[in-house]
Structure formats: C-alpha cells, structure tokens
From TrEMBL:
Belongs to the AB hydrolase superfamily. AB hydrolase 2 family. Pfam families: Abhydrolase_2. It comes from Mucilaginibacter terrae. This is Phospholipase/carboxylesterase. The keyword Lyase does not apply.
C-alpha cells in the first residue's frame, strides 16, 4: 500500500491573471499531462490549469466500490493531495467559487468524493464516468452546501467499472447537499470520453 507524493503540473493562464482554476484528475493508469490535454477542448483559455499526479498512476489500488480498508491509506492520501492543491490554488489568489474540477473514471470518482466531502460553492465540476466512493455510501462523510454549484456527471450504461445504480445514488447525495446536478447516460457507450460529453461539459459547466 502507498501514500501519494504531492506532485502536480500546471499550464494555462498564470494564476495571478486567471479568471478561474481547473483541477483535472486523471484515471487509473493515466497521467497529469494526459488529462491536461483535454483542456484544449474546453472554454478555459483564461483559466490556470492544475493536474496532480497519482503515485503508481493510481489514486487507490482497488475498485471504488471495494471495502474502504482495501483502498487505504492511498484513498485518504489522495483526498489529502486534492485538498492541499485546493489550498495552494487559494493561496495563489483564486477563491473557491472560481475553482472548477474535472475527472475521468477513477479521477471522476475522486472528484465527486472530494467535492461532496467539502461541499461549498465551487465554480463547477465535471465527472466523466464516476460515482461516490465506498462499498456502501456513508452519508455522514458528506458535509456542507454546494449552493447550486453546477455538476455534470456522464456515464455509459452498462459500464464495466461504474454501475449506473451507484451513479444515480451519488447524484441524489450531491443534490441533497445543494448541487445543481445534470446526469447524462449514454446507452452502450464504452469506457471513454466522447466529443458529445465534452460539448455538454462546455454547455453546462464551462
């Protein structure tokens, strides 16, 4: 088992001149550089882009629906890395309501888990195929009020890694904490990101 090093890449507009920040979380086996390439497809040219890198290229070793103990301490360490990065962004001069999040697959799960454990008015969030983390969800883990933060969650159905039932359960919890959630389900779509999803993210969040 492992803890993460606090490593991240940046690109885009320097924070001092940026209108917002986008935190991009890669999936299992991915890299910070790879997920950052998606920024070129979004309306974020005035944003500072931040992308942390998971140790071992994985935020946690097992399925996001495995018993919590199997994914520790990597999972808690991953959440700590995201929190440390958010604090760094705020120290760079960008407030929480101008911070956006985007993740794919394992990175989407971590995105949703982080923002829902720390619900407040963020700029927005996009989860390309993901759900809240845990063998069973524990509502007590989730605190705060999103205050209508726009959140887009997309998924294929069926998806080999993320059951639609968990996605729908996650949507309800985010709504209970005040998020303005849009869920888009793509029948038969493989485990990837389609151009339609990118266009929808631009329409709903960016």
């Amino acid at each position: 088992m492992y803890n993460h090093n606090f490593e991240y890449k940046t690109t885009g507009t320097p924070a001092a001149k940026a209108k917002g920040a986008l935190v991009m979380l890669h999936g299992r086996g991915g890299t910070a550089a790879n997920i950052m390439s998606l920024a070129a497809e979004l309306n974020v040219k005035d944003f500072a882009i931040y992308a942390p890198q998971a140790t071992n290229s994985s935020w946690y070793p097992y399925s996001f629906m495995a018993p919590d103990g199997q994914n520790q301490p990597a999972l808690n360490s991953a959440l700590q890395v995201i929190n440390q990065l958010v604090e760094q962004i705020k120290a760079d001069g960008i407030p929480a309501d101008k911070i956006y999040f985007l993740g794919f697959s394992q990175g989407a799960c971590l995105t949703l888990e982080y923002i829902t454990r720390n619900a407040q008015r963020f700029g927005g969030a996009v989860a390309f195929t993901g759900g809240l983390i845990g063998e069973q969800l524990t509502p007590a883990n989730y605190q705060g009020d999103f205050n209508t933060t726009p959140v887009l969650i997309t998924t294929g159905n069926p998806d080999p890694h993320v059951p639609l039932t968990r996605v729908e359960e996650s949507v309800e919890i985010l709504k209970q904490h005040g998020a303005n959630v849009i869920l888009k389900v793509y029948p038969g779509r493989p485990h990837t990101i389609s151009m339609d999803e990118i266009e929808l993210a631009k329409e709903v969040v960016f």
